[in-house]
Design goal:
The protein has 78 residues and is an alpha+beta fold. It is built from 2 helices and 3 strands. The termini are far apart. Belongs to the phD/YefM antitoxin family.
Length: 78
């Protein structure tokens, strides 16, 4: 089931963001954000049942990720 989306202008959202986030979390309803009358973003509740473990595929072996670069570098102090 697709729930209807409430629309906020970017200006109104800026003023009411914390309340909008609370409403989205509580109601599960998405909010569409517009700028100059055009939709630019959507705020949606997070599905707590979604598991992210294993959702990323690495194309580099772990050994290569943690291997030293064999390059000398110096941190500058201010």
């Amino acid at each position: 089931m697709v729930m209807p989306s409430t629309t906020y202008t970017a200006t109104r959202l800026k003023a009411e963001l914390l309340g909008v986030l609370d409403t989205v979390a509580r109601s599960g309803e998405a909010v569409t954000v517009t700028k100059h009358g055009r939709p630019i973003a959507r705020i949606v509740p997070i599905d707590d049942d979604v598991q992210l473990t294993g959702s990323v595929a690495f194309n580099v072996p772990d050994d290569e990720l943690i291997a030293p670069l064999d390059e000398t570098w110096h941190a500058e102090t201010a």
